[in-house]
Input
Amino acid sequence: MAEFAYNNWQYSSTDKSPFLVNLGRHSNINGQEQGSLEKVQEANEFIYGIKKTRKEIEEVLRRTNEVMIRRTNKKQGEVV
Output
């Protein structure tokens, strides 16, 4: 239960849960199955969602990296 809660928690750095980032969907708490047509549509949405989420995460991490580089360079400039 603790692992589920951890993986389902939305983190401030990415605004996403590890479950969503890794699997491209939110966890299925209720355990209900969907019909076959819904599954095909959901599969297409799933692929789109994974691609979109990955791009968002890459952008967030790129911006975070830039901020860290600027802060490091600023601190090193103050020391010199």
User: Anything to note?
Assistant: The two ends are 51 Å apart (CA to CA). Residues 2-79 form one domain. The helical segments are 2-8, 18-23, 36-79. The chain has one domain: 2-79.
